[in-house]
Amino acid sequence: MNNRFAKVLMVLALSVPAIASADVIKKASAHSVKETMDKFETLVMSKGLGVFARVDHTKNAMGVDMKMNEAEVLIFGNPKAGTVLMKKDPATALDLPLKVAVYKDNDGKVWLSYRNPQDLSKDYDLAGVPVLGKVETALDKLTTAVTK
Amino acid sequence: MPLIKKQSNHSVKDTMDKFEALVKTKDMTVFARVDHKANAASIDMEMNDAEVLIFGNPKGGTVIMKKDSAAALDLPLRVAVYADDEGDVFVSYHNQHGLSAIYDVEGVPVLAAVTEALDNLTNAVIG
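The joint structure predicted for all components is written out below.
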């Protein structure tokens, strides 16, 4: 990354609440890591999506006597959408179910992050599958709802 | 992230059974094993056999996340096993060196160790 581009990214980071950097969408959360993830998990379940795992990285680190910032990741999805994608390209199985992380940076700021589902078409043969746009919109709404 | 794909000589279930058993012998934790086909069947949809294992070792992952907390999104690790439309079975995963293209984890030695471990573990279950 050249310097000018790095500066532009920094300015974007300061001025826009949600930024896309190297394929990852990041939104600042007004709540703690745990509260943000509690809200997100509850919302996801209320929409009929399946939660496959909620991984508390900080707790796992403590389990091996290590310390780190608070960080959790939720693995969840809806087979109705996911199956359509995997029927188009079975290799997509690796990146499903979806995941959303919530973590604290070294300055104590809480972020929610995830990949734009549209980016799956960079790795897999999914170009033009309409479900990608629907999942993108749904994830945007769900994550915005819990970070406010 | 760069994708690594290896053909397996076994069925999807046998390959994943072997992989899960192997991972558990290596001081790693399995967080979830997702059977995509079974989930599809539960809503009356059909698809090829496909499973994904979500697993990891906090000793490795924590070092990466201490360097850049944002890497929390791409941990624990994942390995998928799936059948393509010709019935060939593949094991796939993302090359962990790809994490340094996304996060500030360039040069963290654990990345090379994880990449090598994933290579060895997946080679062991496909033959």
